[in-house]
Amino acid sequence: MNVDRQDDSHWHFSLGPVEKWVVAGALSMLIGAFGYIGSGFATRLDEQGKTLQRLSEQQAVANAQMLTLTTQLSDVPGLTRAMAETKVRVDDNTRRIGDLEQLRKLR
Questions:
Q1: Could you give the CA distance from residue 8 to residue 39 in angstroms, rounded to a whole number?
Q2: Which residues of 9-28 are buried (b: 16+ CB within 10 A; e: fewer)?
Q3: DSSP for 4-56?
Q4: Contact yes or no for 1/15 (Cβ under 8 A)
Q5: What are the pLDDT digits (tens) for 7-45?
Q6: Which DSSP string do the residues of 72-107 spell out, in sequence order?
């Protein structure tokens, strides 16, 4: 490698044939490394996209199940009231049956 100061006060350098091959090889390796890293990023981005799609599908299923559960749970107060009314009727019928049995014994 030669470095010379020219008359225009700028530094000029020149490479020999072996140095040119070394620089070309280093640049080739650098470009190859950037290509390899870039393809790795692309692969990871594709995998991340697929994972995100699966997660989105799972979220949609979970939301549908939550909606079903919410609908089912909204009926619980009505069911509780119906069960209480049924229990009152059963208790009343049990009392009436007992009264009827007592009347039969009296006859």
A1: 46
A2: eeeeeeeeeeeeeeeeeeee
A3: EE-TTS-EEEE--HHHHHHHHHHHHHHHHHHHHHHHHHHHHHHHHHHHHHHHH
A4: yes
A5: 777 787 788 889 889 999 999 999 999 999 888 888 999
A6: HHHTHHHHHHHHHHHHHHHHHHHHHHHHHHHHHHH-
With tokens 């989105």, the residue in question is 56
What is the widest separation between alpha-carbon atoms in the chain? 143
pTM of the predicted model, to two decimals? 0.46
* H or E, element range at 62: helix 17-74
**pLDDT tens digits for 3-12?**
777 777 778 7
d(CA 58, CA 66): 12
